[in-house]
Give the backbone structure.
Amino acid sequence: MRKLLFLTTLFLTAIFFIGSTNLMGQQKRRQKKRPSSTKKISPPTIDQEAVQKATEFWKSKLTKCGNDFYTKGYVDPINHTRSIIFQFKDYGFTMEKGTISNADRLNGLEYRGSSSLNVEVSRTYSAVELFSQNAGWSRWKNGLPIYRITSLLGEQDFGILLSRENGYWTIDSVDSSQSIFLEPIDCSNVPEG
């Protein structure tokens, strides 16, 4: 009986050892089949960087109050006189990539483009009567307000120029647009209406 018990124990031990060795081998094989969890993240392209810079710019100029977006501009942006509040129901922006000549490249220019603000509907507010608006809120209109930034220079777009030269980004206004002078506005300063 002892011999039978010894053989049974030996047999069960051998089966257990073979089974556990086989399981360990399967686990090792499974581990080898798993893909590496470290993925290489490639740096953004210059076009992606331009979109990121434009996004940062527009977000820095607009304030969301409730469901609407607001920004403030001036008839005279240098002296900050006669402010105008712009209200937009929704916004986005477009990007347009410019061309770079061989001379531009040799001078270190890596990117040239522009971005323009687009809105679904808008209106403006002025505390005093201006050239093209009575005091108070204007009527809603589709797209950007006709008054836009400054009536002194005519109808202007909300637009910026973006460029990267020798690794440094620069943002300027398009032509005589005053987009770089826009300011975010505190929601508590938005007039009723």
Observations:
- The CA atoms of residues 40 and 186 lie 41 Å apart.
